[in-house]
């Protein structure tokens, strides 16, 4: 049965969708979340970092912690860990527990935050960049909001609403993308290899029925 289309989608779920559409479906549509040591560590990190308020750095820059964001146009809601104000421009900063990965899921989430901020300041220039701070490596990585990243982010938002109404999860990742399954906390629930085997031996119908 087709799902009801959501009114909004939280910014953080775009991270999951860019990483794996199947993971997005389990987390957003079905509300499933398996907590391992990495997920728990990330949750505790944000509990410490996400204390609402303002502060001024030694350099005179204003920082806003845990700022609520929303976009009526894109139908997004969520929070930015930190928004820095530099020369009248808002710069989103996202905290991540681990190290910088090979994928663009963190970049897309950050870019979506910038799109929300821009919608609230239509008279301001477009936000050129933001930062992701990785606690695992203690590195602050600059992310440029290029036309390509903006287009990818907007397409991902469109796909999120499309996948959210599907009656069953997307198929597991395959090919070179399947390497992402190795470090996914939802692997014990998703069972990507088992589902692939069922699809190959049963023509797909049994795997699909188990995914519903």
Automatic annotation (TrEMBL):
Listed cofactors: iron-sulfur cluster; [4Fe-4S] cluster; Mg(2+); Mn(2+)
BP terms from Gene Ontology: defense response to virus
Pfam family name, one: Cas_Cas4
Enzyme class: hydrolase
Free-text comment on the cofactor: Mg(2+) or Mn(2+) required for ssDNA cleavage activity.
Documented EC number(s): 3.1.12.1
Keywords: Antiviral defense, Exonuclease, Hydrolase, Iron, Iron-sulfur, Manganese, Metal-binding, Nuclease, Plasmid
GO molecular function annotation: exonuclease activity; iron-sulfur cluster binding; metal ion binding
Domain DUF83: 13-191
Keyword rRNA processing tagged: no
Known function: CRISPR (clustered regularly interspaced short palindromic repeat) is an adaptive immune system that provides protection against mobile genetic elements (viruses, transposable elements and conjugative plasmids). CRISPR clusters contain sequences complementary to antecedent mobile elements and target invading nucleic acids. CRISPR clusters are transcribed and processed into CRISPR RNA (crRNA).
Assigned protein family: Belongs to the CRISPR-associated exonuclease Cas4 family.
Matches recorded under PANTHER family: CRISPR-ASSOCIATED EXONUCLEASE CAS4, DNA REPLICATION ATP-DEPENDENT HELICASE_NUCLEASE DNA2
Name of the protein described by the UniProt record: CRISPR-associated exonuclease Cas4
């Amino acid at each position: 049965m087709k799902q009801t289309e959501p009114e909004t989608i939280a910014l953080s779920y775009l991270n999951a969708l860019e990483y794996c559409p199947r993971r997005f479906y389990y987390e957003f549509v079905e509300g499933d979340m398996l907590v391992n040591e990495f997920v728990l560590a990330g949750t505790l990190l944000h509990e410490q970092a996400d204390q609402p308020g303002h502060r001024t750095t030694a350099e005179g820059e204003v920082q806003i912690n845990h700022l609520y964001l929303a976009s009526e146009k894109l139908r997004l809601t969520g929070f930015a860990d930190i928004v820095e104000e530099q020369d009248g421009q808002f710069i989103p900063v996202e905290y991540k527990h681990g190290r910088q990965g090979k994928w663009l899921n963190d970049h897309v989430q950050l870019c979506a935050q910038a799109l929300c901020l821009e919608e609230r300041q239509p008279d301001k220039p477009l936000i050129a960049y933001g930062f992701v701070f990785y606690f695992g490596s203690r590195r602050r990585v600059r992310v440029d909001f290029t036309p390509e990243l903006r287009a990818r982010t907007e397409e991902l938002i469109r796909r999120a609403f499309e996948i959210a109404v599907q009656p069953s999860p997307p198929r597991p990742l395959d090919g070179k993308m399947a390497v992402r399954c190795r470090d996914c906390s939802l692997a014990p629930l998703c069972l990507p290899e088992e589902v692939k085997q069922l699809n190959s031996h049963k023509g797909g119908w049994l795997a699909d029925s188990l995914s519903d």
